[in-house]
Structure formats: C-alpha cells, structure tokens
Amino acid sequence: MNIFVGSLPFSIEEADLRESFEAYGAVDSVKIITDKFTGRSKGFGFVEMTNDDEAQKAIDELNGATVQGRAIVVNKSEPKPEGERRSFNNNRGGNDSRGGYGGNSRGGDNRGGGNRGGY
Predict the structure, then answer these.
(1) Quick one: CA dihedral 78, 79, 83, 86, positive or negative?
(2) Global pTM exceeds 0.85
(3) Is 70 exceeded by the pLDDT of residue 15?
(4) Is the pLDDT score of 94 beyond 90?
(5) What is the pLDDT of residues 58-67, one digit of tens each?
(6) What is the CATH number of domain 2-76?
(7) In angstroms, rounded to a whole number, what is the distance separating the alpha carbons of residues 69 and 29?
(8) Which residues form the RRM domain (predicted)?
(9) Cα(first)–Cα(last) distance of the chain, in Å?
(10) In 10 A of CB 62, how many CB atoms?
(11) What is the predicted pLDDT for the residue at 93?
C-alpha cells in the first residue's frame, strides 16, 4: 500500500520516517518530496508497505501523531484521476494571450502606444 505522509517537519530524514513505519511492519520504500531547485523538503512524502493490514495499522496509529513538534497527516495515497492533472500551459488564457494581458496588445493605458506598429 502506498501511504501519503504530510505536515512533516522540514528537517526529517527518510531514514527517520522509515524507522517510524517499520515499527508496524516491512517498509519497501520511503520518499520525501523535495523542491527540485533548492533540494529542500516540501513537507510531505510517501511510504510504501507490502502488507496492507500493517500499512492500515500504521495509518491508524500515526495519523495525528507528533513528530518533532508537528502533528503529521497519514493516509492511504490515492492516485489523481488522469483528468485532474495539469500540464505546464493549461489555464493560461487563450489565443496568444501572454499571461492573460490581452493577446498581442502591449500596454493599453491612456497614454497611447498600446499597440506597436505603423500608422
């Protein structure tokens, strides 16, 4: 079972998280999600456990537990439905609107010069 673990302290290491879950059974993998630019933890991760009964017991007992002064959130990880995933360019306006400012018209204040080009 894949388990979501949220509200993690930013200082927690994967080995510490693994140790917490190993108290309930065998842990296949642990992954704390990090920012790809800074490498800093995003405060959540995933734990994979083979035995569903052990995984459920870990969820039941660790959800709301305090880790390094923070109450963590632990629940079964559900994959997002395919339709809810966003690509990089979704929801950015349509028809050549650059950032939602009105297409090729640049400026647009009352001083003129809104559209660049000839007379």
Answers:
(1) positive
(2) no
(3) yes
(4) no
(5) 999 999 999 9
(6) 3.30.70.330
(7) 24
(8) 1-79
(9) 67
(10) 20
(11) 52
Structure tokens at 6: 């949220």
Query: How far is Cα 4 from Cα 60, in angstroms, rounded to an integer?
Result: 13
3-state secondary structure the chain: CEEEEECCCCCCCHHHHHHHHHCCCCEEEEEEEECCCCCCEEEEEEEEECCHHHHHHHHHHHCCCEECCEECEEEECCCCCHHHCCCCCCCCCCCCCCCCCCCCCCCCCCCCCCCCCCC
- Residue 47 and residue 76 in contact, taking contact as beta carbons nearer than 8 Å: no
Q: How sure is the predictor about 80, in pLDDT bands with cuts at 50, 70 and 90?
A: confident
